[in-house]
Amino acid sequence: MKIEPGMAALVTGAGSGIGRGIALALARRGVDVGVCDIRQADAEATVALVEAAGGRAVAVQADVSVRGSVEEATDMVEANFGPISILCNNAGIAMHGVPLHEISQADWDWVIGVNVYGVIHGMNVVVPRMLASGKPAHVVNTASIGGFQVNPNFLTGAYSMTKYAVVALSEGMQNELAGTNVGVSVLAPAAVDTGIHLSERSRPDRLGGAYVRPENHFMGDLIKNSAKPEDIGERVAAAIEGDEFYIFTHPETQHWLEARHE
Ligand code: NAD
């Protein structure tokens, strides 16, 4: 799909990291961006960066794990910028370092709520509106290379489970939406230099608190010298324009897809 100036986008988890990189890349192409995040101040910080670069954006506080919250965010972006042409279901949290059989009900609800329901709600709320508009539109779901393989070293099974789900949802959407005005992509980065190891900062029952799961600290080391969010944003914008379905950002991981189909 050609990205046209004046199109509207909704990018979730755009208060930091990859979402911010996507928001900035879209804004550079003249897209008006709904910067959605559970952390209002972070969303506003991204809006300030977009505006400083000459773009237009609006901060939208929402919890993607709650359908009504996604509906309100969508309505607010459309009230500001018109029908959404680009949806990036990007908000996500890491949950590493705990054996699967020890993960609490609250932790399961949280990781599935954000990483899986977050994508489902975005899809269910926005895609019908895109189809009804009949105009070129595109959805990008952020999965991970962890959506293709469970890392044997870091107890990332729960995170990977949610990202496998995002890959499967995206493949289903691609099949079902083929031939319509709505294109689909799934983003599968490896390590990107973001604050994802601080995921607990975005947890609704701990918002404002400083609690960080100590076992997540390894992520800080893992993501040193990794890809930059700005580059991922540019890669996503190019993939939308090129109608690419799988977006691998690290060339050394491309073969994971082929491995899965062997
Ligand atoms: P990040 O923590 O910098 O950004 C995630 C953003 O999502 C944060 O601003 C956070 O406040 C927001 N968020 C969290 N829960 C939310 C909720 N319930 N509702 C709305 N917003 C919420 O991390 P990131 O690395 O930029 O992660 C973005 C996406 O990229 C995630 O889906 C993540 O799983 C994926 N990813 C990241 C990496 C990496 O190495 N950083 C690798 C592969 C995939």
Describe the structure.
The structure is a single chain. The chain is of the alpha/beta class. The chain has a single domain, classed as Rossmann fold (3-Layer(aba) Sandwich). The protein contains 8 helices and 7 strands. Strand 1, helix 1 and strand 2 form a beta-alpha-beta unit. Helix 4 (105-133) runs parallel beside helix 5 (157-177). The longest helix has 29 residues, at 105-133. The protein is globular, with a radius of gyration of 17 Å. The mean pLDDT is 91. It binds nicotinamide-adenine-dinucleotide. Nicotinamide-adenine-dinucleotide binds next to helix 1. Nicotinamide-adenine-dinucleotide is lined by residues 12-13, 15-19, 37-39, 42, 62-65, 90-93, 114, 142, 144, 189, 191-192, 194-196, 199, 202, 223.
How would the blueprint of this fold be written?
Blueprint lengths: L7 E5 L4 H12 L3 E6 L2 H13 L4 E5 L5 H15 L2 E6 L15 H29 L3 E6 L14 H21 L4 E7 L28 H6 L6 H13 L4 E3 L6 H7 L1
Parallel strand pairs: 1-2, 1-4, 2-3, 4-5, 5-6, 6-7
Helix pairs in contact: 1-7, 3-4, 4-5
This protein binds nicotinamide-adenine-dinucleotide.
